[in-house]
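The instructor's notes for this session suggest beginning with a concrete chain rather than abstract definitions. Hand out the sequence below and ask the class to guess, before any prediction is shown, which regions might be ordered.
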Amino acid sequence: MIEPLTLDIPFPTTEGISRDAFSLKIISPAYASAQSELNTILQYNYHAGFFERAKEEDISKALFRISVCEMIHLNLLSKTIAALGAAPVYTRYPPDFFDFYSTKYVSYSRSLKHMLEDDILGEKRAIAGYEKMLIRLKNPGVIKIINRILEDEKLHLKTLENIRPQLQG
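After discussion, reveal the predicted structure:
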Protein backbone atom coordinates (compact mmCIF):
# COMPACT_ATOMS: atom_id res chain seq x y z
CA MET A 1 0.00 0.00 0.00
CA ILE A 2 1.33 3.42 -0.94
CA GLU A 3 0.92 5.94 1.87
CA PRO A 4 -0.68 9.35 1.27
CA LEU A 5 1.64 11.79 -0.44
CA THR A 6 0.49 14.93 1.32
CA LEU A 7 -0.27 15.45 4.96
CA ASP A 8 -3.88 15.70 6.00
CA ILE A 9 -3.26 19.21 7.30
CA PRO A 10 -4.49 22.32 5.50
CA PHE A 11 -1.93 24.51 3.79
CA PRO A 12 -1.41 27.95 5.33
CA THR A 13 -2.70 30.92 3.37
CA THR A 14 -0.81 34.03 2.33
CA GLU A 15 -3.24 36.21 4.26
CA GLY A 16 -1.33 38.82 6.23
CA ILE A 17 1.86 38.47 4.19
CA SER A 18 3.01 41.77 2.68
CA ARG A 19 5.96 43.06 0.66
CA ASP A 20 9.18 41.57 1.97
CA ALA A 21 12.20 41.56 -0.37
CA PHE A 22 14.32 39.59 2.11
CA SER A 23 11.89 36.65 2.30
CA LEU A 24 11.29 36.85 -1.44
CA LYS A 25 14.98 36.36 -2.18
CA ILE A 26 15.18 33.40 0.19
CA ILE A 27 12.20 31.42 -1.10
CA SER A 28 12.31 32.22 -4.84
CA PRO A 29 14.78 29.47 -5.84
CA ALA A 30 12.28 26.89 -4.56
CA TYR A 31 9.84 28.16 -7.18
CA ALA A 32 11.76 27.91 -10.47
CA SER A 33 15.37 26.73 -10.45
CA ALA A 34 17.31 23.47 -10.78
CA GLN A 35 16.09 22.41 -7.32
CA SER A 36 12.60 23.84 -7.53
CA GLU A 37 9.04 22.67 -7.32
CA LEU A 38 8.65 23.38 -11.04
CA ASN A 39 11.60 21.15 -11.91
CA THR A 40 10.36 18.42 -9.60
CA ILE A 41 6.92 18.39 -11.23
CA LEU A 42 8.40 17.96 -14.69
CA GLN A 43 10.88 15.32 -13.56
CA TYR A 44 8.27 13.21 -11.75
CA ASN A 45 5.99 13.32 -14.77
CA TYR A 46 8.83 12.27 -17.09
CA HIS A 47 9.82 9.41 -14.77
CA ALA A 48 6.22 8.28 -14.15
CA GLY A 49 5.81 7.66 -17.87
CA PHE A 50 8.85 5.39 -17.98
CA PHE A 51 7.68 3.41 -14.96
CA GLU A 52 4.25 3.01 -16.52
CA ARG A 53 5.75 1.68 -19.78
CA ALA A 54 7.86 -0.75 -17.72
CA LYS A 55 4.64 -2.09 -16.14
CA GLU A 56 5.57 -0.60 -12.76
CA GLU A 57 2.12 0.94 -12.38
CA ASP A 58 2.23 1.37 -8.58
CA ILE A 59 5.51 3.27 -8.77
CA SER A 60 4.25 5.32 -11.71
CA LYS A 61 1.12 6.27 -9.76
CA ALA A 62 3.18 7.19 -6.69
CA LEU A 63 5.43 9.47 -8.76
CA PHE A 64 2.40 11.08 -10.38
CA ARG A 65 0.75 11.61 -6.97
CA ILE A 66 3.92 13.23 -5.65
CA SER A 67 3.95 15.44 -8.75
CA VAL A 68 0.40 16.60 -8.03
CA CYS A 69 1.42 17.52 -4.49
CA GLU A 70 4.41 19.43 -5.87
CA MET A 71 1.95 21.35 -8.09
CA ILE A 72 0.14 22.44 -4.95
CA HIS A 73 3.48 23.59 -3.51
CA LEU A 74 4.28 25.50 -6.71
CA ASN A 75 0.90 27.22 -6.58
CA LEU A 76 1.39 28.16 -2.93
CA LEU A 77 4.89 29.51 -3.64
CA SER A 78 3.45 31.50 -6.56
CA LYS A 79 0.87 33.09 -4.25
CA THR A 80 3.54 33.73 -1.64
CA ILE A 81 5.88 35.39 -4.15
CA ALA A 82 3.01 37.63 -5.28
CA ALA A 83 2.16 38.48 -1.66
CA LEU A 84 5.82 39.33 -1.04
CA GLY A 85 5.66 41.87 -3.86
CA ALA A 86 6.87 40.18 -7.06
CA ALA A 87 5.32 38.72 -10.18
CA PRO A 88 5.83 34.94 -9.96
CA VAL A 89 7.69 34.60 -13.26
CA TYR A 90 9.66 31.41 -13.83
CA THR A 91 13.07 32.80 -12.90
CA ARG A 92 15.38 32.06 -10.01
CA TYR A 93 14.76 35.49 -8.49
CA PRO A 94 11.43 37.08 -9.45
CA PRO A 95 10.67 39.84 -10.37
CA ASP A 96 13.87 39.81 -12.47
CA PHE A 97 13.26 38.80 -16.06
CA PHE A 98 16.52 36.89 -16.53
CA ASP A 99 17.91 33.53 -15.42
CA PHE A 100 14.70 31.88 -16.60
CA TYR A 101 13.97 28.30 -15.65
CA SER A 102 15.16 25.70 -18.16
CA THR A 103 14.09 22.09 -18.62
CA LYS A 104 17.79 21.20 -18.88
CA TYR A 105 17.60 20.69 -15.10
CA VAL A 106 15.28 17.67 -15.40
CA SER A 107 16.94 14.29 -14.89
CA TYR A 108 16.53 12.52 -18.22
CA SER A 109 17.95 9.20 -17.07
CA ARG A 110 16.58 6.13 -18.87
CA SER A 111 17.29 3.61 -16.12
CA LEU A 112 14.41 3.11 -13.68
CA LYS A 113 16.83 2.63 -10.81
CA HIS A 114 18.68 5.85 -11.67
CA MET A 115 15.41 7.73 -12.05
CA LEU A 116 14.35 6.71 -8.57
CA GLU A 117 17.77 7.58 -7.16
CA ASP A 118 17.58 11.00 -8.85
CA ASP A 119 14.15 11.54 -7.33
CA ILE A 120 15.38 10.55 -3.87
CA LEU A 121 18.34 12.91 -4.24
CA GLY A 122 15.97 15.66 -5.36
CA GLU A 123 13.80 15.23 -2.27
CA LYS A 124 16.87 15.26 -0.01
CA ARG A 125 18.04 18.48 -1.65
CA ALA A 126 14.57 20.00 -1.32
CA ILE A 127 14.44 19.13 2.37
CA ALA A 128 17.90 20.60 2.95
CA GLY A 129 16.96 23.72 0.96
CA TYR A 130 13.75 24.31 2.90
CA GLU A 131 15.55 23.73 6.20
CA LYS A 132 18.18 26.34 5.23
CA MET A 133 15.40 28.76 4.32
CA LEU A 134 13.81 28.31 7.74
CA ILE A 135 17.08 29.26 9.44
CA ARG A 136 17.18 32.57 7.55
CA LEU A 137 13.50 33.51 7.39
CA LYS A 138 12.00 35.94 9.88
CA ASN A 139 8.52 36.40 8.38
CA PRO A 140 6.10 34.23 10.43
CA GLY A 141 3.61 33.79 7.58
CA VAL A 142 6.29 32.63 5.16
CA ILE A 143 7.80 30.36 7.82
CA LYS A 144 4.43 28.60 8.23
CA ILE A 145 4.19 28.01 4.48
CA ILE A 146 7.74 26.67 4.17
CA ASN A 147 7.30 24.43 7.23
CA ARG A 148 4.14 22.94 5.71
CA ILE A 149 5.80 22.27 2.35
CA LEU A 150 8.80 20.76 4.16
CA GLU A 151 6.60 18.21 5.92
CA ASP A 152 5.25 16.97 2.57
CA GLU A 153 8.79 16.73 1.18
CA LYS A 154 9.76 14.49 4.09
CA LEU A 155 6.76 12.29 3.32
CA HIS A 156 7.79 12.11 -0.34
CA LEU A 157 11.32 11.05 0.61
CA LYS A 158 9.96 8.32 2.89
CA THR A 159 7.69 7.08 0.12
CA LEU A 160 10.52 6.95 -2.43
CA GLU A 161 12.83 5.19 0.00
CA ASN A 162 10.10 2.60 0.63
CA ILE A 163 9.84 2.03 -3.13
CA ARG A 164 13.60 1.58 -3.60
CA PRO A 165 13.70 -2.13 -2.57
CA GLN A 166 11.21 -2.98 -5.34
CA LEU A 167 13.88 -2.04 -7.91
CA GLN A 168 16.72 -3.83 -6.18
CA GLY A 169 15.45 -7.33 -6.99
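Then share the key points. The radius of gyration is 16 Å. The first helix runs from residue 21 to 27.
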